[in-house]
């Protein structure tokens, strides 16, 4: 049976349920959010329909600029750390036995599926004074006294890298599996060391994949909404945390919605860049 | 030499990934309600606490119910869509594929906020079933991607043979397509189930004030200080995820599944 265009109305019927669900519960909520971003906020957490730009005008404050700048900087730092750690790891993983690969993939998937609440709790425990990593250093005689390592910028960064690392590996995995092994073999035959072959053959061959991965991890890190709150101080809050905070605790839905719309625009712009980077990769 | 270097590198990565979980596992067996590592004394009572303490038990039940139902709904949305896209030539219908992948690609807080404003406007805010629908939409990407992959792997000549022998669409679907696609349905369901179990922000923004799922319960408990039950729940969650993904790997082709998933997300 070949694929054929739908002939009668009945041919479209399988599409009805999915199309209705996605339209009602994704497109409409998205539209509602955009509408709310133009609404007028009332005292006490309510809002009334209006068409004002007040919520967007608040972006122009120094505070918001600071948060936006910090969020971007944080996400860039996470993306770079993750790709640096994950690229050699994934490359070596794809060259291992299938059974070993599967064990690592199961472990990575399990960590990737973990709730941010749980990751935040686990790292705050590891960085705590009473149960933390500093106790090991004290036991080894490297430190005189155990101390708490959170809240701090380094704690937020570590937590976010931990969260994004499995994602980075899984994004890189398919591209590295498909990488032609004869490329490195040729380099080795010509006398390059494994390390040199990696940097002069593998990395350049994957340039577009690396760019696309950096952008995807960047988007992933932008979405982190709890770790900066659990492991950092208020100055370490990112845009996602601020949106949650405005929506839930400050009850300022219009402002939260306006920030979310802004975040969507940033994300979509970056997705477009990823697609372009991917296209170039195919053409080359 | 390089092999030693490689082993060391993998060991370090493994340590980085495992360390927080090892410490949490250690903390979870403390005798008293203290946050201490290495653990002081040994007790499994904090694991019993999940099932004995009514608050934790209710949160566990809420999370399980939510995950079972929302993953089923996600598959129910994804299956007809993936089947239609495979069976028919209808380029415009790809827009629904795009809509199905979008909630997972955008930062989660956006989907959560969209659903919050939607349920509040519609007047259903806080109803437990809204969380089921919200999670189903949020995670529909996972069954959609695994099922699309499953359909492309079906040999069309099998379907053609059935059609030549007089089977209609319904019979073909039941006797040929469904048995071939079943492993992909199961893995899609498994992915959606595990992620729904762990999901915090969408659940919190839709039903956070009326019911507690386990991640919400852990977060609320964190704000009032520490209890070792959080640690035992964490260990329970990590093991559940590892067992489920281990089963998917055992009965399916995990590397292939992941190879396709990541390329589809781009």
Total number of helices of chain B: 13
Question: Span between N and C termini of chain A?
Answer: 36 Å
Count of alpha and pi helical runs of chain A: 13
* Strand numbers in spatial order across the main sheet of chain A: 1-2
Number of strands of chain A: 2
The total number of structural domains of chain A is 1
Query: What is the general shape of chain B?
Result: globular
State the shape of chain A: globular
Largest sheet of chain B: none
Query: Roughly how many Å apart are the termini of chain B?
Result: 37 Å
CATH class of chain B: Mainly Alpha
Reported for the largest beta sheet of chain A, the result is: 2 strands, antiparallel
Largest interface: A-B, 93 and 98 residues
CATH homologous superfamily title of chain A? MetI-like
Residues in helix, % of chain A: over 70%
Order of helices and strands of chain A: HEEHHHHHHHHHHHH
- Alpha-carbon Rg of chain A, integer: 24 Å
Sheet/helix structural class of chain B: mainly alpha
Describe the secondary-structure layout.
The complex is a heterodimer of chains A (284) and B (266).
Chain A: H1 9-36, E1 40-41, E2 47-48, H2 54-57, H3 62-94, H4 98-112, H5 116-126, H6 133-139, H7 153-178, H8 181-189, H9 194-205, H10 207-222, H11 227-231, H12 239-249, H13 253-283
Antiparallel strand pairs in A: 1-2
Helix pairs in contact in A: 3-7, 3-10, 4-7, 5-7, 7-10, 8-9, 10-13, 12-13
Chain B: H1 2-27, H2 45-52, H3 54-87, H4 94-105, H5 108-122, H6 128-139, H7 141-152, H8 156-164, H9 169-198, H10 201-207, H11 214-223, H12 228-251, H13 254-265
Helix pairs in contact in B: 1-12, 2-3, 2-12, 3-4, 3-6, 3-7, 3-9, 3-11, 4-7, 5-10, 6-10, 7-9, 7-13, 8-9, 9-12
């Amino acid at each position: 049976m070949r694929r054929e265009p739908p002939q009668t109305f009945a041919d479209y019927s399988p599409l009805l349920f999915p199309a209705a669900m996605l339209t009602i519960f994704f497109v409409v909520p998205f539209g509602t959010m955009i509408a709310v971003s133009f609404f007028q906020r009332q005292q006490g957490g309510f809002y009334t329909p209006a068409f004002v730009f007040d919520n967007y005008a608040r972006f122009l404050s120094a505070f918001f600029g600071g948060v936006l700048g910090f969020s971007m900087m944080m996400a860039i730092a996470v993306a770079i750390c993750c790709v640096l750690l994950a690229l050699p790891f994934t490359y070596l993983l794809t060259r291992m036995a299938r059974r070993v690969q599967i064990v690592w993939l199961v472990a990575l998937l399990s960590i990737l599926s973990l709730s941010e609440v749980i990751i935040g709790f686990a790292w705050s425990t590891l960085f705590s004074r009473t149960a933390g990593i500093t106790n090991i250093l004290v036991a080894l005689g490297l430190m005189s006294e155990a101390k708490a390592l959170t809240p701090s910028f380094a704690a937020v960064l570590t937590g976010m890298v931990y969260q994004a690392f499995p994602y980075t590996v899984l994004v890189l995995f398919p591209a590295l599996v498909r990488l032609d092994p004869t490329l490195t073999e040729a380099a080795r035959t010509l006398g390059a060391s494994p390390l040199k072959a990696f940097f002069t053959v593998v990395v350049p061959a994957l340039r577009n994949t690396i760019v696309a991965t950096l952008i995807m991890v960047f988007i992933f890190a932008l979405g982190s909404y709890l770790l900066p709150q659990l492991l950092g101080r208020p100055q370490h809050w990112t845009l996602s945390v601020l949106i949650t905070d405005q929506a839930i605790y400050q009850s300022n839905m219009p402002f939260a919605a306006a920030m979310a719309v802004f975040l969507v625009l940033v994300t979509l712009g970056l997705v477009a860049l990823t697609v372009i980077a991917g296209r170039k990769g195919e053409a080359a | 030499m390089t092999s030693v270097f490689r082993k060391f590198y993998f060991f370090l990565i493994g340590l980085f990934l495992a360390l927080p979980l090892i410490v949490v596992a250690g903390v979870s067996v403390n005798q008293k309600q203290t946050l201490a590592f290495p653990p002081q004394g040994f007790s499994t009572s904090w694991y019993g606490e999940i099932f004995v303490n009514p608050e934790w038990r209710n949160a566990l039940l809420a999370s399980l119910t939510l995950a079972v139902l929302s993953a089923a709904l996600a598959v129910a949305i994804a299956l007809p869509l993936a089947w239609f896209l495979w069976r028919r030539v209808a380029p415009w219908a790809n827009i629904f594929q795009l809509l199905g992948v979008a909630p997972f690609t955008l930062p989660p807080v956006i989907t959560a906020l969209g659903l919050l404003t939607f349920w509040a406007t519609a007047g259903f805010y806080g109803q437990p079933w809204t969380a089921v629908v919200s999670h189903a939409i949020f995670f529909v990407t996972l069954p959609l991607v695994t099922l699309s992959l499953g359909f492309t792997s079906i040999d069309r000549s099998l379907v053609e043979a059935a059609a030549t022998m007089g089977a209609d669409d319904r019979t073909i679907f039941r006797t040929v397509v469904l048995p071939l696609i079943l492993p992909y349905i199961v893995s899609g369901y498994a992915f959606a189930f595990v992620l729904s179990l762990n999901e915090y922000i969408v659940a919190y923004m839709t039903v956070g004030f009326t019911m507690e799922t386990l991640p919400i319960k852990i977060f609320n408990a964190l704000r009032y200080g520490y209890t070792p039950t959080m640690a035992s729940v964490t260990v329970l969650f990590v093991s559940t995820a590892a067992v489920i993904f281990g089963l998917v790997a055992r009965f399916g082709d995990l590397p292939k599944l992941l190879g396709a998933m990541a390329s589809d997300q781009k």
